[in-house]
Structures are given as C-alpha cells and as structure tokens.
Amino acid sequence: MSNLEKRRIDRRWTRWLRSVVRIRIERTIANSARAQLSLAMMEVAIGVLVVFAVLSGLVLGVPTPEFRETQLDAYAQDTATLLEDPSTQYRPSELTTSPSAFERRAPILGDRLEELLPENLMARIETPHGAIGYRSPTDAPVGRTTIPTPNGSVQILVWYP
C-alpha cells in the first residue's frame, strides 16, 4: 500500500467518523429538546413526599390501642379464677343452685369480691337468681367473664368508676 492509498483510507475513515459523531450529536440535541426532569428535581420531590408523610403522621397521630377493656377482662378472669378455688368457701357455683342458696351466699361472696379487686375497680356478679354488687354502667368499658356451672352461668363484670 502506498502513502496515497493510506491517505485516502484515512480521509474516508475520518469522514465516516465525523458523520457518525455528527449524527450522534444531532440525536443528543434532538433528545434534549424533550422536557426531562433532572435527577436533583426528582430527589427534591421524593424528599418533600417523605417529609409530608412524617409530618402528617405526627400531626394526625396514631390511634391508641384499646387496652382498658383487655385489662378489665384480665381482672374479671383473675377474679373468677380466685373465686372458683375449691379450697375456699367462696364458690360461685353455689349461687346458682337455688334462690335460698343465693340469698345465703350473696353477702359472703360480695365481701370476698371487694377483697379481691383493687380499690379503683367496681364489680358485679350476675347469676340466674340475682346479682351482687353495683349496677354496671352502659357508657364505660366493662371487662367480663363467664363461669359455667351445672345450674346456670355466673357472669363477673369489672369496670373503672
């Protein structure tokens, strides 16, 4: 290959390379004419959304769990467990045998109920033959448990005054 041929090849190569570069540059300019958001703008938008989400969580808050009824149910269940203890004279099953048995055992069981519960709680025992304790409120949370007995069920209600 002579020097003249080498120059021709170099010129052709250079022309081709220039045309390719020109096409790519033109495409880049044409593509940049479209509306595109910069990466910084995207980061700002995402940051604003995150800050808004956190602030709305703080302002609106989260609902408080209903732990009062759960705690009251636990008090009622514990009271029932202690009253059902066979080693004591306080058995709720004796309240359901007859109305006379209820009349005889009600004062004893009422006193025992007041001994078992903390002072800030009120309680009621309901049986088929009557009730012991205070009337339960309709507008306050009430914890309840039921003790099944052979002659009917005994329900224990516990609430904060």
Describe the structure.
The structure is a single chain. It is built from four helices and four strands; from the N terminus they run H-H-H-H-E-E-E-E. It has 161 residues and is α+β, with helices and mostly antiparallel strands. It has two domains: 3-60, no CATH class; 67-159, 2-Layer Sandwich (Beta-Lactamase). Strands 2-1-4-3 form a four-stranded antiparallel sheet. The longest helix has 30 residues, at 3-32. The protein starts with a helix and ends with a strand. Pfam families: DUF7262. InterPro entries: DUF7262.
Secondary structure topology:
Blueprint: H1 3-32, H2 39-60, H3 67-83, H4 99-116, E1 122-127, E2 130-133, E3 142-149, E4 152-159
Q: What average pLDDT do the residues reach?
A: 81
CATH class of the largest domain: Alpha Beta
Class derived from helix and strand content: alpha+beta
What is the N-to-C succession of helices and strands? HHHHEEEE
InterPro entries: DUF7262
Pfam families: DUF7262
What descriptors fit this protein?
161 residues; alpha+beta; Beta-Lactamase; four-stranded antiparallel sheet; 4 helices; rod-shaped; DUF7262
